[in-house]
Specification:
Largest sheet: 7 strands, mixed
Shape: elongated
Strand content: 35-45%
Number of helices: 3
Radius of gyration: 52 Å
Distance between the termini: 162 Å
Number of domains: 5
Number of strands: 55
Structural class: mainly beta
Length: about 700
């Protein structure tokens, strides 16, 4: 055992409001095992008592409860509090206002408190311990009577051995012994004393101011969780009224009963009972219409922590007196003339339910920038609880989709409209909401939206986020429309000349693109319709590439049918040409008559693992259908290529040669080659003629050479 030079404190808290008003009778239950000055292996100098929030004029009963016949023994402490004020020295004389005030409070406490050791066979109250003498000053005692006990003491079924000064009436069913067995100190004039401060044992017969009705009526009920109707709930408090009018208005409460605290005579969490209700029928006669049982009404003042307070008024009729309790029988229908409605026959113990405080979160999925906030169907979400109200980390998650049902891993969406979500029954704490599947044709919103459910009223508070908006009380979470872009390139090639110039600048060339085929009307158009191939760098050669502005495909360009690949593929075709100028054409330059068919297939991307939509993509096939001369061809130069790998449609322009001998202006490149062959042929002929003429001269005797 370890002696601790301090005292143990037991605090009792009543139901007084800020104005000091409350129940006229304050009842507390204290386990006998708690009424000791020991905690574990540590023994304190004694037990101090503090009574707080005791209404003015109220009487106090402290029931010491434990197994029947259990002896109770403890040392009183040296200090005592009454409504947050220490009054331990209120016995001292003095004419100051402070001394008079302390004496008045001391007297009030002594006359207000009743200690009821109802089941104890033996009660021993020892005096306070003074441990200052441990170091040798001589003032040491383990049983000093000066540590007085305030209030009346009742031991109806046992004996009482008292070593301290009492300040109240004493009622004992067995023997009453009052003495001081321990010598503590010797004083010069008084001689030996049991007290180190020379205040020996006294008995002051302050009367108890309360009223006790042995034949009073008892009312009892219990508090359970509405989820199962069985789980007991502790911590509620109730007011008892004598009329339904007072109960409705919340006026003139007879008493307030707190579960496990003030005025609760029941033992066990969630069980409540009050024993001293005086209004009852005349039980000397049979209860009838002429002699009705009195009805009391109860209403919840404070709900168990985490539960909604009920405004329902319940009732019980006092058919029994004494220890036989009257259970709450039903509730008052205040809407229909205060009609008394009985509980189901199975509710024999007055079980009253409470519903947990929960929150309801709602949001609507919309397209980013949609001023009409049109709901978008088809999204899926992950709801995760990350923390309890006290900050404790939690790892719980559920899947949510349009009209999803409640399950072990899913949370029910109670909103019947697609794209609108309502999740009810969320326990207080912190949650995150994350989109796991975007509506078809929209980009996944990767934000984690955080919100809290308030523990007092279930209200929802969202953490601010730039993409979450609340308009007129409605929460909107937006997704951007999913899109993919395609740029179609062209290459300009010039032959037989360098890139033409005009006025010192390199001349541009223009091209056209036209949507063709079945979906020409709905096909997206390029941002720039006619890209210009031009060159500003004189060091470059004659092949220059340009591209039409990006064509953007989104969900509206997908097929309405999933197709064999379930990718909703849809193909749009385009024809690409060179635009020959009607005026200002480059002199003697033959413009290309080539044509290319560009087929762009847009399709939905699906995650093969999850089977969920993840975005859009395109594949493109480029086929030359006419050559530069305008002849029909079929030459695929790129098949099903990715958006960044589309081959360029090539257009070749040829400069017509006009300065060859024996040629006329305006010949084409092919005729130029034919002319060239002709020149070679003519040259051969000329050479043959020269050889023939020479031979003839050699053979002609008339020629001088032959002579």
């Amino acid at each position: 055992m370890t002696l601790v030079n301090n005292e143990k404190l037991i605090t009792f808290t009543g139901d007084a409001d800020d104005s000091g008003k409350g129940s006229s009778l304050q009842v507390f239950n204290l386990k006998a095992s708690d009424l000791t000055n020991s905690i574990g292996d540590k023994t304190y100098r004694g037990v101090d008592f503090s009574f707080n929030k005791i209404p003015e004029g109220a009487s106090v009963v402290v029931n010491i409860i434990d197994d029947k016949g259990t002896p109770v023994e403890f040392n009183t402490g040296w200090r005592f509090w009454w409504n947050d004020e220490e009054i331990s020295r209120g016995y001292e004389e003095g004419d100051t206002d402070e001394a008079k005030h302390l004496r008045a409070q001391y007297s009030t406490a002594a006359q207000s408190i009743l200690w009821n050791f109802a089941t104890a066979s033996q009660v021993t109250i020892r005096g306070g311990m003074a441990l200052e003498g441990i170091d040798g000053d001589g003032k040491w005692t383990d049983d000093d009577p000066a540590a007085a006990m305030l209030g009346s003491i009742v031991v109806p079924n046992g004996s009482f051995e008292d070593h301290v000064t009492t300040n109240g009436r004493v009622y004992v069913g067995g023997d009453f012994e009052m003495y001081n067995p321990t010598k503590a100190c010797r004083f010069d004039f008084e001689g030996d004393s049991a007290s180190v401060i020379d205040m020996d044992q006294e008995r002051h017969n302050f009367p108890w101011s309360g009223s006790y009705t042995p034949n009073g009526s008892a009312i009892a009920w219990s508090k359970v969780d509405a989820a199962d109707g069985m789980t007991p709930l502790s911590g509620s408090s109730w007011a008892i009224y004598g009329s339904v009018e007072d109960a409705v208005a919340g006026n003139n409460a007879i008493v307030t009963v707190t579960d496990g605290g003030a005025n609760d005579y029941a033992s066990g969490d969630g069980k409540l009972q009050f024993n001293y209700l005086n209004q009852k029928a005349d039980l000397t006669a049979e209860i009838s219409d002429m002699n009705p049982a009195f009805t009391y009404y109860i209403k919840e003042v404070t709900a168990p922590e985490g539960y909604q307070k009920s405004d329902t008024i319940y009732y019980a009729t006092m058919n029994n007196t004494g220890e036989q309790v009257n259970y709450v029988k039903g509730y008052v229908d205040t809407v229909n003339g205060n009609k008394l409605v009985s509980f189901d026959d199975s509710n024999t113990t007055g079980a009253i339910t409470n519903t947990k405080i929960t929150g309801t979160v709602s949001w609507t999925k919309v397209e980013d920038g949609d001023a009409k906030y049109t709901p978008l169907p088809g999204s899926e979400w992950k709801l995760a609880k990350t923390n309890d109200t006290d900050g404790t980390a939690v790892d719980q998650s559920w899947t949510v989709s349009d009209q999803s049902k409640s399950g072990e891993a899913t949370w029910a969406d109670t909103d019947a409209k697609d794209g609108k979500f309502t999740l009810a029954g969320l326990l207080p704490g912190t949650y995150t909401l994350t989109e796991t599947q975007a509506p078809f044709g929209y980009e996944l919103n990767k934000n984690a939206y955080k919100f809290t459910v308030d523990s007092t009223n279930g209200s929802i508070t969202w953490k601010e986020n730039e993409q979450l908006s609340i308009v007129n009380g409605t929460t909107y979470i937006s997704d951007k429309c999913s899109a993919t872009s395609v740029k179609i390139p062209v290459t300009k090639s010039v032959r037989n000349t360098d890139w033409p110039t005009a006025d010192g600048s390199y001349v541009p060339f223009e091209f056209s693109i036209e949507a063709t085929g079945d979906y020409a009307d709905t096909a997206p158009k390029p941002i720039s319709v006619a890209p210009k191939a031009g060159e500003t760098d004189a060091t470059k050669l004659n092949n220059i590439t340009a591209a039409f502005g990006a064509m953007t495909f989104n969900k509206k360009h997908l097929s309405t049918e999933a197709g064999t690949n379930k990718d909703y593929a849809k193909t749009y075709t385009y024809t690409v040409k060179e635009v020959a100028p009607t005026t200002g054409a480059i002199d003697k330059l033959r413009y290309s008559k080539a044509e290319y068919q560009v087929a762009v297939t847009v399709k939905a991307l699906m995650d093969k693992t999850t089977g969920k939509y993840t975005g859009l993509t395109t594949s493109t096939t480029v086929t030359q259908v006419k050559d530069d001369m305008g002849n029909t061809v079929s030459n695929t130069i790129g098949k099903d290529v990715a958006p960044d790998a589309i081959p360029a449609s090539t257009f070749t322009n040829v400069k017509v040669l006009t300065d060859l001998p024996l040629t006329g202006a305006g010949w084409t490149e092919n005729s130029m080659l034919l002319v060239g062959a002709g020149l070679m042929l003519l040259s051969g002929i000329a050479a043959g003629a020269y050889w023939f003429a020479t031979k003839r001269r050699q053979d002609d005797p008339s020629d001088g050479a032959g002579r």
